[in-house]
Prior knowledge:
Elements: E1 2-5, H1 11-18, E2 26-28, E3 42-47, H2 56-65, E4 69-76, H3 86-95, E5 99-104, H4 109-127
Parallel strand pairs: 1-2, 1-3, 3-4, 4-5
Organism: Paenibacillus roseus
Family: Belongs to the NrdI family.
Protein name: Protein NrdI
Amino acid sequence: MIVAYYSITGNVRRFVRKLGLPPGRTVDIAEDGVSETLAEPFILVTPTTGFGQVPGPVAKFAKINHKWFRGVAASGNRNWGASYGKAGDVLTERYDVPLLLRFELSGTDEDVRNFNEGVAWISNLTSN
């Protein structure tokens, strides 16, 4: 499973690096959101911007690659209350994919474990 991600401040990038994925299993979404077209299932990791919005490049990437979109994880800040990680909720609703987790900053070791368990669960679903 590919992990596609977009990072504004570096927190999402640090989270993805903690996953320990082999080379070639991650895709860093470009600023234009359209430079990468996938031909296999992927999980999307995104920050939340503003008051719970999906960043523009992520929205474009998801729209272009929606056929292979299997799940989402969203970063955010708990200080935003109900808008914490809301980009994940927006994408879940828009594309009918599961929200694997919300995490703060670059995530904790527990967040990484939960994410990897979610990816394994989705991989099992899609392989059967």
